[in-house]
Amino acid sequence: MSEIIYRDFDRAGLDREYNARDSVPDFTIYLDQYAELSREARRNLACMCDLAYGDHPAMKLDYFPAGPQSPLFVYLHGGYWRALSAKESAFMARNFVENGISVAAVNYALAPEAGLDEIVRQCRAAIAYCADLAPELGLDAARIFAGGSSAGGHLAGMIAAQGWPEEMGAPHDVIKGIAAISGLYDLEPIRLSHVNEWMQLDAHSVRRNSPVNHLPAAHCKVVAGVGGDESSEFKRQSADYAARCRQAGLEVREVMPAGRNHFDVVMELGRPGSALEQAVFEMILG
Questions:
Q1: How far apart, in whole angstroms, are the C-alpha atoms of residue 150 and residue 127?
Q2: Which pLDDT does position 90 carry in this prediction?
Q3: CA nearest 186: which of 17, 27, 2?
Q4: pLDDT above 70 (res 62)
Q5: Does residue 1 carry a pLDDT above 80?
Q6: Exposed, middle or buried, 273 (CB in 10 Å: 0-12/13-18/19+)?
Q7: Which of 152, 194, 207, 214 yields a CA-CA distance of 20 to 30 A from 44?
Q8: pTM, two decimal places
Q9: Which residues 6+ apart lie within 8 Å of 8 measured at CB?
Q10: What are the sequence ranges of the domains in the chain?
């Protein structure tokens, strides 16, 4: 019998639970959709592309303005911290901009060249940059929200964590809410799985970078989304994070679209009238 290393899982079982690519017949079709819809957004919407929010070459973002004093949705892409970029991350921009919400698609350095501490730092720097330049960008600095899918859901949780805004010169309540979709909020099973081959997490980095250990302040709203067809562990991660946030006094809304997998659930943000889109719009627009 194989050794149980996490909950009821041995290493092979844990790898299956967190192997998102093998959960669908062909994951590349979704990446192609992300890219094509993002290209269409850059062609058809006003876009300030490749704004540098830091000194590292990867620290750039594409900004899609929705009009004066609009709220901002900052999207942090997935890809298990080692793939994708801002250029595949504006697939929801048209829907958001048409509803009066500006969008920033954030690029960041990837693993294994960048460790998770650095990736988190860069994403937080992107938030501080947007808050600082809100007047020039035409934004309402009091209405900045963030979201992401998979690794981006993890990063959204770390963006919502307390303490860092003051260290970067941003207001303590700079993030008013997050859309955490299919995220990884407890990194211990990641450390024990095949994903650690490129992430190189240890017990200390797991504690530092697990959103379940760094919950948002009570002012921050949370939409926790996960696909109905995702693995039991991705569903558990989402439910556990939502429960902990709720216990901490946060306003939390959980959404689980039926028939959606790890890759297409986030596409619901660009589908008018979807339950996930409506939950996020209600969080942002009230």
A1: 19
A2: 98
A3: 17
A4: yes
A5: no
A6: exposed
A7: 152
A8: 0.98
A9: none
A10: 4-285
